[in-house]
Amino acid sequence: MYIPRILLCGNVKKFLSLNVEVIGLIKFRGAAERGEFIVPNNAAVANSFRLNETDFKIFINGVEISADNLRGLLETSADYIVFENHDEYLLRFRELYALKLIDRVITATTLLNYATDNFFSLNNAIQIFKLINKQRVLDVDGYFIKNDYYMFPDLNHKIAGVIGVEYHFYKETYPTLADARFKFFDALLLTKERSPAEFIDILIDTDALTENIWAFVRKNSALESFLAANESAFEKISRFPAVNGNWVLLKKFVRADFKIYVVTHKDVKLSKLPKGYEIIHAGHAQAKENFGYIGDDTGDNISHLNLYLNEITALYWLWKNTRQDFIGFVHYRRFFTTDGKNFLSMDEAKKILRESDIIVNGCEYGYIALRDWKAVLSTRQLAEHVINTIRKYIALRQPDYLATFDRVNNSFGVFCYEIFITRREIFNAYCEWLFSFIIDATEEILSTTDIASSDDPRIYRAISFTAEHLMTVWLIKNRLRIKTLPIIFRNDV
Q1: DSSP assignments along 390-430, one per residue
Q2: Boundaries of every domain in the chain
Q3: CA proximity to 282, closest of 316, 259, 255, 248
Q4: Residue 216: its H or E element
Q5: Is 3.40.50.300 the CATH number for 122-251?
Q6: What confidence category does residue 33 fall into, taking pLDDT thresholds of 50, 70 and 90?
Q7: Model pTM above 0.85
């Protein structure tokens, strides 16, 4: 918790109830007593009334000190000089101006309004704004709002804020840090005073959001010592001198583990896949042939349900048995592309995921509602039973998604094929949601229908026809930044 250390010009008893540490009482004598207290309003006037440091005297606890000694106190022991009386602050403006410490001298009102959880300096706010210019930054502690930048909405560029309510300064706002959990930013801005332990906690909590951290590190603080002793924990630490500390840019070691899985149930003969692609055999537990690919029937798995859930059994296996930082999921016949000729490369995907949260296939539209299309693919009675059973489990396990589920089933558009590339955190969140209900719903459908005894793919695939479109429900509800790409369709397998 930040406790401002102040040199007080005023009555110390009035500050006893405040969360501050008064390290000394300060007095000025000189120019104001001679009536020289005109506040400059332009450069010419300012030049005409500048004082020398010898034109006034400074006292700490009744003992006279030099201007250099005062600067030394502000560099080592004190954060601010605080004036209890605003009028006296104005009277002393010339002395403060001559000391060139205006950014370290504030009123009691400013102390209460601006310096409650971090060191306040308007110069620091201006400096960091210039440093992060044109970067997509998440202002975790609402720093710019606290420093009056809300008055300049034309300066916001790409800055987002965690501030609880919407402000026009920010391009995006999030009520809590958790609401930004699926986003990715060029950098995060941390300005609240934190202990080393608290700083580690916030780095862990925000690890998936960025590769770079901007932080204000107060001079002589515990955090300053901690970062100096642990530079090896970061790829690079850059420091930019600021008032009473440094703006520090922490570049984390880049997470580069990336894999795009190609799900199949047959020998797809893909010998020249780009780097980072790997084939996974879905339904391997009941397969009649082994093609030499990894299967979805080891470890924690639901491979036995593949006939009814299709590629979703491979999705489950990847969720439970892999740990890549970036993960993709495509089909043996469908691959993402940017040029219509070549499979999407890992480098292309990483570049896209710096600006977007997930890559999916473009939304497809039909001339009948999705609910009716599922009836065409199987039968009306079976399709309605599948939809209603899944709906029942969504209402039970994920009630916040019920309205979106209904909307998607009654709409004419959907993201097709359940293929995607995204970051691990988003992948995990989707799987946690999907598998909180789809397995139990599938087992109930199997126990209440003759699907399991049918050899008609229109019947035994009825569940997968609905399950495939559940990603659309999740994407719409979570309002992700979606990048759609075309696909290359292989019709030779």
Answers
A1: HHHHHHHH-GGGHHHHHHHHTSSEEE-TT-EEEEHHHHHHH
A2: 5-114, 122-251, 258-489
A3: 316
A4: strand 212-218
A5: no
A6: low
A7: no
